[in-house]
Design a protein that fits this description.
This protein is of the alpha+beta class. It is 32% helix and 24% strand.
Length: 507
RNA sequence: GAUCUCGUAGCUCAGCUGGUAGAGCACUUGACUUUUAAUCAAGGUGUCCUGGGUUCGAAUCCCAGCGGGAUCACCA
């Protein structure tokens, strides 16, 4: 094992601590009575400037900086809420003749990054900084590797930032320690999810769990990961969606079920795609996609409000307004609006002609539905910046969706576009088992034509529908994509703690 | 998967047309009892991503590989 100079020095310090009878990794709990942010927010002084509270505090965290000035030192402690300054004077922590605790342990054997616990009282320095005057400290956990030292001056300028994306993603633990805004992003994401969960629970939604290992990967058009079950000696797929399982629960008599579903798709990775990602799906009996549009607007408005404190959310250079209601436009009108052509009456040959003229890449496996989707994707999708429901898709690209109540050839489906990206996809669910069987059979034809994303026939799902499913509307909302918007992050990797990367090699 | 680009100290980076490896911070030693990007003095950082090649000589030029990023393709 190759050790750098600094790592060797820290290991030597470990030995010296042990020689002094100090356990660098003590087992017992340390009493924490207060956190840094709380002190900074609520510290008070009387008229003479004498502190009135926090005169007996005990807190713990990482030592993040240390400025030794002879017999006194200033240091910074970083706990889960932020940083607070420490003032440590030699004669306070080592009142007797033996000054080892200060001269050796504090000044020499502690390193930046070490976990320590401190007890003391809070005061304000001459420079105005709220500070803990330490009377007692204890090493709680030694850091054997040096953290990147990121410094910030008064104007907020950052020096020597820890910025290498590879290192930040691979060693998120370090990223979180030294880049406080990263923690902020993830807290925001968690708040967003909590807000959505509250919204659903308040309306009678029931949170459920359904299988991740599936014998038939259904509910979406995507290439799955394949794994193998040893005892049964059969292949299993990691789920690409949970849709068909949630609908089985609607068959079973629940009115409203939801699941934050970790899905896995064996496809490319880029700034908007990770092999595993989270979709919130929910299904509500006796509703249709029109109801679902209203519910989606309300859900997103609340999520934006709870997460950002406003419905006008800054995303990159633009402001996205999450306040309901959102614009609605059919996919044909959307294409008309942005490509200037009416594809609503075209057959497959005509659509191919249009794609050719627009220099849109196509191949022989694509049917009418996919061609229309292509044209929309190339010419219109990225133009919808403000939240917009794109409605009424062609039946060929929606095998699980009920046919439109009044428009032949279309289905009752919408996708929600925000900032030029699909964030949600919803339908009035197909509950006619005979129609569903025919749609699955069409998928088999597509598969034979070479479409490797066409759906398998799920016979158990058909059997469930044959027992009867109430009219139902369902939706999938891309939680990572939504988090990217509400947290104003350009890349999905910045809203996932551990984005997928090529495995690291250690030698 | 394709193209472009990057890889030098713990971190951020410089290193020109090839000539003994550099800075700031961090680190080590010392001074300093209200500092705050603390300051002052002194000190050493290293598989220049890996492996080949060209050359008297390669961090530098060439080839291959590994890893990252960006763009594109597939997709949410």
């Amino acid at each position: 094992m190759h050790l750098s100079e600094q790592e060797i020095i820290r290991r030597e310090k470990l030995e010296k601590l042990l020689a002094l009878g100090i356990d660098p990794f003590p087992p017992e709990a340390y009493e924490v009575t207060v956190h840094a942010a709380h002190i900074k927010e609520f510290f008070q002084e009387d008229a003479e400037g004498k502190p009135v509270n926090f005169q007996e505090v005990s807190l713990a965290g990482r030592l993040m900086s240390s400025r030794v000035m002879g017999k006194a030192s200033f240091a910074e402690l970083q706990d889960s809420t932020g940083r607070i300054q420490l003032y440590i004077s030699r004669d306070d922590i080592a009142p007797g003749d033996d000054k080892t605790l200060y001269n050796e342990v504090f000044k020499k054997l502690l390193d930046l990054g070490d976990f320590i616990g401190v007890k003391g009282h809070v005061f304000r320095t001459q420079m105005g900084e709220i500070t803990v005057h330490v009377t007692e400290f204890k090493l709680l956990g030694k850091a054997l590797r040096p953290l990147p030292v990121v410094k910030r001056d008064e104007e907020g300028h950052t020096f020597d930032a820890f910025t290498d994306p590879e290192q930040r993603y691979r060693m998120r633990y370090v990223d979180l320690v030294v880049n406080p805004e990263v923690k902020g992003t993830f807290l925001k994401r968690t708040n967003m999810v909590a807000s959505i969960r509250r919204f659903l629970n308040e309306r009678g939604g029931l949170e459920v769990d359904t299988p991740v290992l599936q014998a038939i990967p259904g509910g979406a058009a995507a290439r799955p990961f394949i794994t193998h079950h040893n005892a049964l000696d059969v292949p299993f797929y990691l789920r690409i969606a949970n849709e068909l399982y949630l609908k089985r629960l609607i068959v079973g008599g629940f009115d409203w079920v939801y699941e934050f579903s970790r899905n896995f798709r064996n496809e490319g990775m880029d700034r908007t795609h990770n092999p595993e990602f989270t979709i919130l799906e929910f299904y509500v009996a006796y509703k249709d996609y029109l109801w679902m549009m209203q519910t989606t607007e309300a859900l997103l408005e609340q999520a934006a409000m709870d997460t950002c404190g406003t419905t006008d959310v800054q995303v990159g250079e633009t402001i996205i307004n999450f306040k309901a209601p959102y614009r609605r436009i059919s996919i044909y009108d959307a294409i008309k609006e942005h490509a200037g052509i009416d594809v609503s009456a075209m057959d497959e040959a005509e659509l191919r002609e249009v794609c050719k003229k627009m220099h849109i890449e196509i191949d022989g496996s694509m049917g009418k539905g996919k061609l229309i989707d292509k044209i929309f994707g190339e010419k219109a999708e990225h133009k919808f910046i403000q939240p917009t429901f794109i409605t009424d898709y062609p039946v060929e690209m929606s095998p699980l969706t009920k046919k439109h109540r009044s428009k032949p050839g279309l289905v009752e489906r919408f996708e929600l576009m925000i900032n030029g990206k699909e964030v949600a996809n919803a339908y009035t669910e197909l509950n006619d088992p005979i129609d569903q069987r025919e749609r699955f059979e069409e998928q088999v034809t597509l598969m034979e034509r070479g479409d490797d994303e066409a759906m398998f026939i799920d016979h158990d799902f058909l059997r469930a529908l044959e027992y009867g499913m109430p009219p139902t509307s369902g939706i999938g909302i891309g939680i990572d994509r939504l988090a990217m918007l509400l947290c104003n992050q350009y890349s999905i990797q910045d809203v996932l703690f551990f984005p997928q990367m090529r495995p690291e090699k250690f030698d």
